[in-house]
Design goal:
Chain lengths: 294, 384, 581
């Protein structure tokens, strides 16, 4: 019983990580129809930013985190202007490749600057020798609890923002029809820039939260990004609920799959499921079938 | 008190420097350099350890030159980046081979890269010093590879023997990475354990870069293992697993492959690795020669050397020694000379080359005592 | 029709280059790079077919490369097989895998397809790494032998000739594919899949074929790679390598053979040239990819071709020997299309709700009604773009409701679209050729029909123009020519007059009258009543998805029900009706 509990908690927790990263991907996609293959690298860069700041000077953790997030915001702005903006009218393929190119640049840039040795980050809650608490035979890592909590708060906040604030509605309008939004006086470029900034900050935050568990290396974003991407699709592109549900599901499936099927083929197994999901329910978990007008 | 010691040291250093400069230059080698190529990771994942390997080889070159070089000629090291990939290693070797004057090569430490190189090495017919521990590397019929680390056949035997006889493991779980190193190690250690009458109760693989060992550790717990034997390639993974072992409260003693002693893993795992045992082919306290090497290395770079630096140092050391002993620098002469090296101390341990090109047959057992890696015991394995 | 000078020049240069390069490169290391570049360029040529021609994205190219490599490796080193036997086995396995992947396009495209190919690639990497018994696991496979050939292939230089020669042959093959019927169909699917389907192209089969071909080509590249380096391990066949090949295709220019080869060579040699930058060279590599995407969207070769195109003069169209055969076989007056209680509901919206009418051979039948009455939905149902919710459609005696559009098209139906759906990157000539492929006959017959159709609409002068460069009215004519080229029995026209000015409309009317005079049966959806009255013998009127009137034009247009439907006011309607009568 304890084993099931442990697998369930760990699965949900890892799923929370995927969901958190998927949130950023979904946002950018909703606003720009662009799938950002560099989202995982935003996580990695956020973690490195925090490492850099908090190790360079003896700074309070939370202050350092805030500064790191500001840096990520700046990066998001540069990304929007330098990469997305020039390609905004092209088809999706060049954009995908450009974001892949950006991801290669970021990964290797981080390697060149910080070196290949992994870095350590302290967890948000520093308590106890193990960083968590053992309840009923199940170990609850505080950091995972924080991740799940943050994801929940972000999802609720985001939902409220998009549904109930004017700015949120403007951003939704931009994502559905840029030209019409422009005609209505919505500053489209600003909206898109805001979306990228928020998404980058979200990615950086995810990286900072994940780093104490996974350690910071230049490759940490690669697999995370890929899985979060898969989750976004399984959840139905552009659907936040789907991304969250998909993320949690993937985490649980993976963990149970590793325990009961094969540790070694765990990734292959997860991706195979994704293929099947895409084939038989491409509209995602919550999506509706949309018929195209000829 | 401190100030005066410092001043004294400075004075002595100054005198030594002047003296060295004033010494007759007969000891300084001159003439066309003897070029040795080194295939090393300058970029890619292996960049960090690649740097240590460079430093190790460079130190050996410096020492060789201050001892008169090879047959009066200075030794010159030429690097090529293998990018930590197989095709990169092959390309690096080929670039080195373009320079006809390269007399020998210091090869990579990763077994998979060495395997990729073998066809080219055999074609080129040049002595290549290797550091990979995969058993098959010296048993694939090549005449040109010479190993300055003990291979995994030995590590497996040492691990198995120590685990059963000394640590008294009863139920053993073998955790291994799925790459060449991990799978090869697993096969050999399972074989040895079975010979000793203690076949493992669990053999579990995982992929390099795994972030969560819950499933693996759950299996460990369920197997009731009281001892863990691991062949893990990357010390980052060691660090993560160590943390989780502590968190999940798994009580099993741990004897691991060299990555368990590496500084990255210890930095990440903190006290979760205290009390664990590891096997490694290099420890600074193992012999007078290793102490000497560690001191020189520390003096130059300010840090303790690891097995990457040591094996690379020895590779250069052995090669230079063989070139000194050989009548000329033709590949066959160098080869004969290397194989003739017996009872020769290097930073790793004592070298006795056999016909396959294996020079070492030892492993050190070390223990992580509050983050200091202490030498516990050195075991030599009789060659079969 | 020529393809311009730059391409032909590249081919002519190809063979001498194959011979000269291994001689020019004197270092062993450089020769090995040539072999690597050749193998990777072949893989990239696979992407030319899949991405460049058929417009399907794939991040799994390294998988097929790997299958070819492992087949040859396992075959020659473990199985003791002859290379020439191991190779076809590898090609076959890769083709089968390509078909499997291609079948997923039945349901997916765009980002989804990209994701599926990524998953496929990762699964392959995991299997290659972990199925140690078969693949040797991370240790890989060594001792791979080289093929026996007319010349020995033992030295690097000899093998480089072999590899470059293979590259040349594949390049020529892919080059010729572009202008073949299959190549045209692929490009049509890429530009506008819906229109291609409606013109008789079996888009699923085309996509699967593209995947299969690209997989086989990549496998050949992998086989050459394996024998070239005599050792393979799984880390050469992962997602990173797939991305690399895709970058090669895009940097060089995905839809052209010389482009892929340029891209392949450039991105193989570039890391070596950048080697001196040491730690940051990969950063520069990533930056180069981005810069090429930003500033050279069609790749290096595309840019070269643009320059070349300005210099080349288009060759004139060869004249058709026979005029277009318009009008079908069979007796005038027989019913060739009949709708029985046809309906289509979209969720709660009843777009078409139980419509019956029939079209007789040789007549021009108009389908009219206010906006939203279901006219276009009807056309889409008839041509197979939608599946009916209920009801039947009989065309030439066969039940076609729910049949795939390309099958209906090949039975003799053709259509134009309300929003023009031309293949924008194809020329007028190529657009019409695709339409001509629908009917039977070999390539010569196809070309005859296409030429005749173009002459019929009077567009000989613009045959070489890219469709996207034409003015709106001309594009409409091209659509009609494209539909006619397949000598259909029934032509569906969806608002052909929309967006045309008066003189253009008159030209259209004249054209359609000529078609009528030749006996072609047409079903016409239109808003412009003068067009309707000039052309049609029978009218069916829809409103809210139901038929409200039917009959000869004068009767129907005087029908107060019809007038009310358009004007919405009963008294005004009656007034108008009295005026009209």
């Amino acid at each position: 019983m304890a084993i099931l509990g442990q697998l369930a908690f760990t699965g949900l927790a890892i799923g929370g990580v995927y969901a958190l990263i998927a949130l950023g991907i979904v946002l950018i996609y909703r606003a720009t129809n662009v799938v950002n293959f560099a989202q995982g690298e935003f996580c990695m860069l956020g973690a490195y930013a925090l490492v850099f700041i908090s190790q360079g000077a003896r700074v309070d953790y939370f202050l350092a985190a805030a500064v790191a997030l500001v840096l990520m915001a700046v990066l998001g702005l540069l990304f929007a202007l330098g990469l997305y903006y020039p390609l905004r009218n092209r088809s999706f393929l060049p954009v995908i490749i450009a974001t892949i190119g950006a991801s290669i640049m970021f990964q290797n840039g981080a390697l060149a600057v910080f070196g290949p040795s992994p870095e350590k980050l302290r967890p948000v809650i520093e308590a106890g020798p193990t960083g968590g608490v053992m309840l009923g035979g199940v170990f609850f890592d505080y950091q995972y609890v924080v991740i799940l909590g943050v994801t929940l708060v972000l999802v609720v906040t985001q939902y409220a923002f998009f549904e109930y604030t004017l700015l949120g509605k403007k951003m939704q309008a931009t994502s559905q029809d840029k030209d019409m939004a422009r005609l209505l006086g919505i500053p489209v470029t600003l909206m898109i820039a805001l979306t990228f900034v928020y998404s980058t900050v979200l990615g950086g935050l995810a990286g900072m939260l994940v780093a104490p568990i996974y350690f910071v290396t230049h490759k940490m974003g690669a697999v995370l990004g890929l899985k979060a991407f898969a989750v976004t699709i399984a959840g139905g592109f552009g659907d936040v609920r789907g991304a969250i549900a998909g993320g949690l599901a993937l985490g649980v499936i993976e963990t149970f799959g590793a325990a009961y099927v094969s540790v070694v083929y765990k990734d292959a197994f997860a991706f195979l499921l994704l293929i099947l999901f895409l084939l038989f329910r491409p509209q995602g978990i919550f999506g509706e079938k949309v018929a195209e007008k000829a | 008190m401190k100030g005066s010691v410092q001043r004294l040291a400075g004075l002595l250093a100054g005198i030594t420097a002047v003296a060295a400069g004033a010494l007759p230059t007969a000891a300084q080698p001159k003439g066309t350099p003897v070029k040795i190529g080194q295939i090393v990771s300058i970029t890619g994942e292996g960049a960090e350890s690649g740097q240590y390997m460079r430093w190790g080889a460079e130190l050996a070159v410096e020492q060789a030159n201050s001892a008169g070089g090879i047959k009066g000629r200075p030794v010159q090291l030429v690097f090529e980046d293998d990018k930590t990939t197989n095709p990169g290693a092959v390309a690096a070797l080929q670039r080195l081979l373009e320079d006809r004057e390269i007399a020998g090569v210091l090869g990579p430490i990763r077994s998979t890269q060495i395997q990729a190189l073998l066809p080219t090495v055999n074609e080129a017919g040049l002595p290549v010093m290797i550091g990979g521990s995969n058993y098959g590397l010296t048993h694939s019929g090549s005449r040109w590879v010479f190993r300055t680390r003990p291979h995994d056949g030995f590590s497996a035997r040492v691990i198995a023997k120590f685990a059963v006889d000394d640590l008294k493991f009863k139920k053993i779980a073998v955790i291994h990475s799925t790459d060449a190193f991990g799978s090869g190690g697993r096969d050999l250690v399972v074989q040895e354990l079975t010979k000793l009458g203690r076949p493992p109760v669990l053999v579990q693989g995982y992929n390099n870069g795994e972030k969560d060992f819950t499933a693996v550790l759950t299996a460990v717990r369920q197997s009731g293992a009281d001892g863990l034997i691991t062949y893990m390639t990357f010390s980052t993974d060691v660090g993560i697993m160590a943390k989780q072992i502590k968190q999940l409260g798994i009580k099993a003693a741990w004897l691991g492959s060299p990555s368990i002693t590496a500084i990255d893993g210890r930095k990440l795992a903190g006290d979760a690795l205290y009390g664990t045992y590891g096997v490694t082919d290099f420890h600074a306290d193992a012999s007078p020669k290793s102490r000497e090497f560690a001191a020189a290395y520390r003096a130059k770079h300010g840090s303790t050397p690891d097995l990457y630096a040591a094996s690379s140092y020895d590779a250069m050391l052995v090669l230079a020694e063989a070139m000194r002993r050989a009548p000329d620098l033709r590949p066959d002469s160098i080869r004969t000379a290397i194989l003739g090296i017996q009872n020769f101390w290097g930073a790793e341990y004592v070298y006795n080359f056999d016909d396959n090109g294996d020079g070492l047959d030892h492993y050190h057992i070390v223990r992580n005592e509050n983050d200091a890696i202490k030498l516990f015991k050195t075991i030599r394995v009789p060659r079969s | 029709m020529g393809r311009g000078r730059p391409g032909a020049a590249a081919i002519a240069l190809g063979l001498p280059l194959v011979i000269a390069l291994p001689l020019a490169v004197t270092t062993r290391y450089g020769t090995n790079l040539l072999i690597l570049a050749a193998a990777l360029s072949i893989s990239t040529l696979g992407l030319t077919v899949l991405l460049g021609y058929a417009g399907q994205i794939s991040l799994a190219q390294a998988t097929f490369f790997g299958i070819g490599a492992y087949a040859v490796a396992l075959g020659t080193s473990r199985g003791g097989m002859d290379w020439w036997l191991a190779l076809p086995l590898g090609l076959g396995a890769a083709t089968a895998a390509g078909v499997v992947l291609g079948m997923t396009t039945l349901k997916l495209g765009g980002h989804y397809l990209a994701m599926v190919t990524i998953c496929f690639q990762i699964i392959f990497s995991q299997i290659a790494t972990n199925w140690v018994a078969v693949t040797g696991g991370p240790d890989g496979i060594s001792g791979i032998r080289r093929p026996r050939f007319f010349i020995p292939l033992d030295t690097a230089q000899q093998y480089a000739w072999f590899a470059l020669g293979a590259l040349f042959l594949v390049g020529v093959g892919v080059w010729f594919l572009r202008d073949s019927a299959l190549g045209r169909s692929m490009r049509a699917v890429r530009d506008n899949e819906l229109a291609a389907e409606a013109l008789g192209v079996d888009s699923l089969r085309v996509k699967v074929t593209a995947f299969a071909l690209s997989a086989a080509i990549a496998a050949l590249g992998g086989a050459l790679y394996a024998s070239g380096f005599r050792y393979i391990s799984p880390d050469s066949f992962g997602l990173d390598q797939s991305i690399e090949v895709l970058a090669m295709a895009l940097a060089g220019g995905a839809d052209a053979v010389p482009g892929s080869i340029v891209g392949g060579f450039l991105l193989t040699f570039l890391p070596e040239w950048l080697r001196d930058l040491k730690r940051i060279y990969l950063v520069v590599y990533g930056a180069v990819i981005i810069l090429v995407i930003l500033f050279m969207p069609e790749g290096l070769w595309g840019w070269a071709r643009l320059v070349g195109r300005r210099l080349a003069r288009p060759r004139p169209l060869p004249p058709a020997r026979r005029p277009l055969a318009v009008g079908g076989r069979g007796e005038a007056g027989e019913t060739i299309l009949a709708l029985e209680n046809l309906g289509k509901h979209f969720g709660g919206l009843k777009a078409v709700d139980g419509v019956d009418f029939a079209v007789r051979r040789g007549e021009v039948h108009a389908l009219i009604g206010p906006n939203g009455s279901g006219k276009t939905t009807c056309i889409n149902l008839i041509s197979g773009l939608y599946r009916p919710s209920f009801g039947r459609i009989r065309f030439l005696g066969r039940e076609v409701a729910g049949m795939r559009p390309n099958r209906i098209a090949r039975r003799g139906m053709a259509r134009t679209f309300q929003n023009i759906r031309l293949f924008r990157d194809l020329s007028v000539w190529e657009n019409v050729l695709v339409g001509a492929q629908r009917a039977l006959g070999g390539e010569a017959a196809v070309r005859e029909r296409a030429a005749a159709a173009i002459e019929f609409v009077g567009l000989e002068g613009q045959a070489a123009e890219r469709a996207r460069n034409l003015p709106y009215g001309t594009q409409k004519l091209v659509e009609i020519a494209r539909a006619l080229a397949g000598t259909p029995e029934l032509l569906l026209l969806d608002e052909p007059g929309a967006g045309l000015n008066q003189s253009e409309k008159q030209e259209l009317v004249d054209l359609l009258k000529r078609l009528r005079a030749h006996g072609l049966t047409m079903l016409l959806v239109e808003h412009d009543m003068s067009l309707v009255t000039q052309l049609s013998e029978a009218i069916t009127v829809l409103n809210f998805g139901k038929k409200i009137s039917e009959g000869k034009p004068d009767d129907v247009l005087a029908d107060p029900v019809v007038v009310e439907a358009y004007l919405g006011n009963r008294d005004a309607a009656l007034g108008l009706a009295r005026e009209h009568a």
